[in-house]
């Protein structure tokens, strides 16, 4: 342990012992800072520690962060250039800074401090993490997503994974700049979202589903009443008429759980125009399809699947799990009449993220769901430095296109036609 840390632990223990915890709630950050500065100076002089003025400032900040904020984590959270923070025990913190992962010099003084902060993060959103419930999903005040696993499940000390909330949200035009899709695809997706197509975004973990959902939801009308349902709120809709709902995990006694399915059912009584489900994982798929089929056009969601056809199969199995009575054929018919468009995203092996299919759900032919690709990414190979090359191709719009029919209703059929000229 370095000298700064050992001084810090001594001072911190003395100050914390003397502190009246209840007074902390009322005191302002600047008053607390003044008090802490005085106490730090007195203690350092009393014990004759060799501490520079600059280090005294750092000590006060560290105490302040620990009392009011998230301790050593606070500096990393305040740094907007850091996108991910991964904590493997008190001494091993890794960060993703500008796309590169490195070990951070920041450390916790010990496991107890790290564990206390993990508990505080959970408590801030009304959740608990302890020996009986050692895994927890939470969210920081700024919207960042957090996953916590504590010992004994985490072998080397408390593990915290943070996906930082992006203050600058990625728009469709940015995705075009990044090479994730063509200008034409961005135009088509914006029209589809605006003209109330029901859209599923399919892809693997970290493939960019939520990012795309967020970008597309920006094209919903300002007068639409939108209800969003998420496990940990990530969407950042700019429209004025938005109700944001979040699921709740079961309490320690195993009660009080509110699932995405509960929220979708409830949202139908909230007079929504559109329902946006952050991620479909289970039974909520059934209610969402019902919603799409009963006048809540323009609903969107994401799900885990590798191709548009796979996405249909995933929805089928989610609905089957939710309703034991519905025959497969009926489920298929419900899916086909509910879903208009499937957008497939993928993280390619060179690390780039791309929209690899935009497919329309045309209908049923016998048992078979008919999909038609409007756009697809065709891989031309890999360059010497490992970059994937390819083109976005379109066979043109089907004469029976659902998006075209919707666009016509909104008076935008010429705009759609122009995309394919
Ligand atoms: N097209 C893209 N190009 C570069 N980065 C992207 C792209 N799409 C998403 N990202 C980034 O990738 C990460 C994962 O994206 P996210 O949308 O959360 O994935 P998912 O919801 O599929 O798990 C985020 O940090 C996001 O900013
Ligand atoms: Mg996501």
UniProtKB/TrEMBL annotation:
<comment type="similarity">
    <text>Belongs to the GSP E family.</text>
</comment>
<dbReference type="InterPro" id="IPR050921">
    <property type="entry name" value="T4SS_GSP_E_ATPase"/>
</dbReference>
<dbReference type="InterPro" id="IPR027417">
    <property type="entry name" value="P-loop_NTPase"/>
</dbReference>
<protein>
    <submittedName>
        <fullName>CpaF family protein</fullName>
    </submittedName>
</protein>
<feature type="domain" description="Bacterial type II secretion system protein E">
    <location>
        <begin position="67"/>
        <end position="345"/>
    </location>
</feature>
<dbReference type="Pfam" id="PF00437">
    <property type="entry name" value="T2SSE"/>
</dbReference>
<dbReference type="GO" id="GO:0016887">
    <property type="term" value="F:ATP hydrolysis activity"/>
</dbReference>
<dbReference type="InterPro" id="IPR001482">
    <property type="entry name" value="T2SS/T4SS_dom"/>
</dbReference>
């Amino acid at each position: 342990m370095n000298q700064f840390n050992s001084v810090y632990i001594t001072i911190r223990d003395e100050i914390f012992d003397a502190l009246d915890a209840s007074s902390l709630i009322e005191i302002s950050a600047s008053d607390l800072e003044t008090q802490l500065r005085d106490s730090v100076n007195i203690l350092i002089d009393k014990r004759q520690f060799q501490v520079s003025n600059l280090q005294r400032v750092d000590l006060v900040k560290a105490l302040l962060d620990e009392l009011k904020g998230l301790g050593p984590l606070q500096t990393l959270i305040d740094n907007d250039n850091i996108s991910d923070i991964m904590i493997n025990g008190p001494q091993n913190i890794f960060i993703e800074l500008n796309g590169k992962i490195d070990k951070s010099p920041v450390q916790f003084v010990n496991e107890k401090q790290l564990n206390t902060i993990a508990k505080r993060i959970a408590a801030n959103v009304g959740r608990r993490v302890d020996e009986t419930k050692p895994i927890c999903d939470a969210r920081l005040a700024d919207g960042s997503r957090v996953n916590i696993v504590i010992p004994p499940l985490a072998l080397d000390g408390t593990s915290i994974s943070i996906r930082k909330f992006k203050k600058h949200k990625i728009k469709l035009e940015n995705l075009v700049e990044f090479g994730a899709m063509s200008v034409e695809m961005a135009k088509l997706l914006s029209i589809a979202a605006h003209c109330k197509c029901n859209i599923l975004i399919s892809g693997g973990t970290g493939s960019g589903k939520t990012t795309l959902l967020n970008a597309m939801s920006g094209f919903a009308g300002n007068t639409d009443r939108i209800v969003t349902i998420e496990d940990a709120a990530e969407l950042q809709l700019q429209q004025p008429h938005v109700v944001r709902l979040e699921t709740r995990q079961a309490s320690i006694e195993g009660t009080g759980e509110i699932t995405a399915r509960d929220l979708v059912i409830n949202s139908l009584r909230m007079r929504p125009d559109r329902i946006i489900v952050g991620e479909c994982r289970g039974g909520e798929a059934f209610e969402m399809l019902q919603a799409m089929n009963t006048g809540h056009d323009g609903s969107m969601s994401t799900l885990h699947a590798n191709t548009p056809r796979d996405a249909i199969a995933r929805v089928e199995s989610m609905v089957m799990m939710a309703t034991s009575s519905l025959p497969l054929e009926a489920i298929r018919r419900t899916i086909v009449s509910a879903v208009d468009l499937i957008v497939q995203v993928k993280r390619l092996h060179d690390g780039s993220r791309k929209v690899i299919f935009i497919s329309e759900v045309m209908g049923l032919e016998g048992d078979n769901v008919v999909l038609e690709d409007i756009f697809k990414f065709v891989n031309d190979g890999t360059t010497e430095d490992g970059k994937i090359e390819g083109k976005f191709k379109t066979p043109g719009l089907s004469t029976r296109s659902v998006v075209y029919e919707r666009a016509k209703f909104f008076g935008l059929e010429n705009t759609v036609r122009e995309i394919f000229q």
